[in-house]
What does this fold into?
Amino acid sequence: MAARYKLSPHAEEDFATLLYSIAEHSGWSRSMDVEESLYAAFNSLARNPGIGHLRDDLLPRTIHFYFADPYMVLYLRDTEPLYVVAIVHGARDIPALMQDRLEG
It folds into this structure.
């Protein structure tokens, strides 16, 4: 049985934007490597959602973090399917980036 996950509309946009940016700056081969790595991370998380960790010092909700070097996959672990909220570079200001996504 295949692992199940769903990307939020913001996460889909994050994913497409980062892959395009990598392709533009480092080539399509590198972009495809990152894409493969992130799909592997999504599948691992769907099979084992507990492998990530909480960062309640960064975000007030129960959003879990999983490091897929150098990106962070932010997800809700207690959903079916697993729900990916965002995909961001680890050096980004996550609270500022997520503020508008968490309102409402």
Observations:
- The two ends are 34 Å apart (CA to CA).
- The chain has three helices and five strands.
